[in-house]
Design goal:
This protein is an alpha/beta fold. The protein contains eleven helices and twelve strands. A seven-stranded mixed sheet has the order 2-1-3-4-6-5-10, sandwiched between helices. Strands 7-9-8-11-12 form a five-stranded mixed sheet, with helices on both faces. β11, α9 (245-255) and β12 (263-268) form a beta-alpha-beta unit.
Length: 303
């Protein structure tokens, strides 16, 4: 997804001299072409993400559209105060890009697990929160984010759902599988596991619909309608179950007076993970893979 993002951003920068990219001293193999073509609009702030964000905000207030770029929690949680007080408070046109959503950097341990970011970023006023499921979607949403002024968070994943390319709109969830027994709602690359789980459920006689959610904030109201029509709703995210997509869907349903007969959030429990390994391994260990999703969904439906 990061390659798709930077290609799209480079295309945008060719047509818009306001676009600036600021990195926290990494990603040079990926960012090299952008830096070579636009040396005056590429800044390495060093391992100083708080300063990186302050620089971005200052430039945005002078009319630039600035993208901050780093891995995992470094462009978000490490500089949360600057994002809150500088960027969001001033409604500055800064796009925060995090490479490595969820367990993408699983071999590096919990310091590099981005598993609280959706909850924290969506709590900030003025912030749009975006999490594509495929590289082609990351490129399309980068273009659409650029067309919208104001703070935004782009969460990029190492995995991909493998969905065919089709028109996509920021803020609009897509139904990528139809089924009348249960509604699976997922965001990011883990949509892949939701689709596989739907196949496993079909083998057991349960028809699952699957929704791919590219924007956690603002949340598409179509998800509330889908939840209201379903026998059960399962929300899946490579993120803590607290405050992320599952919480957003539950809040929207309760606000609208929609109460699904059964509701389950599948994500990381309220813990700090202690296991390290690649993304697929960690999904299995923490019961976020297709087998676990199908097993827990089936148990809920048969309860």
């Amino acid at each position: 997804m990061r390659d798709a993002f930077i290609r799209a951003l480079t295309e945008l920068a060719e047509a818009d001299e306001r676009i600036v990219l600021v990195t926290g001293d990494l990603g040079f193999g990926v960012l090299e072409d952008f830096a070579r073509r636009f040396p005056g609009r590429f800044i390495n702030a060093g391992v100083a993400e708080q300063n990186m964000t302050a620089i971005a905000c200052g430039m945005a207030l002078e009319g630039y559209q600035v993208y901050t770029y780093s891995i995992g929690n470094f462009p978000t949680l490490r500089c949360l105060e600057q994002i809150r007080n500088d960027v969001c408070y001033h409604d500055a046109d800064v796009k925060v890009v995090s490479v490595g959503g969820g367990f993408s950097y699983g071999q590096l341990g919990m310091s590099h697990f981005a598993t609280e970011d959706l909850a924290i970023m969506r709590a900030l006023p003025n912030m749009t929160v975006v999490a594509p499921s495929d590289p082609w979607e990351a490129a399309a949403l980068t273009r659409q984010m650029s067309a919208r002024r104001g703070p935004a968070y782009l969460r990029l994943d190492k995995s991909a759902a493998g969905l065919p390319e089709e028109p996509v709109t920021l803020g609009c969830a897509r139904q990528v599988r139809e089924g009348g027994d249960v509604c699976l709602i997922a965001t990011g690359g883990i949509v892949e596991e939701a689709l596989k789980a739907a196949d496993l459920l079909a083998a057991d006689g349960f028809a699952a619909s699957v929704f791919a959610v590219n924007t956690i904030k603002p949340l598409d109201p179509v998800l509330v309608a889908a939840a209201g029509a379903a026998k059960a709703v399962i929300v899946i995210e490579e993120h803590t179950v607290i405050g992320g997509l599952g919480s957003a869907v539950a809040e929207a349903c309760m606000t609208a007076g929609v109460v699904p007969p059964r509701f389950l959030r599948i994500g990381l429990d309220d813990i700090y993970p202690t296991v390290v390994g690649d993304q697929r391994y960690l999904r299995k260990v923490y019961e976020l893979d297709a087998d676990a999703i199908a097993r827990r969904t089936k148990a809920l439906l048969e309860r």
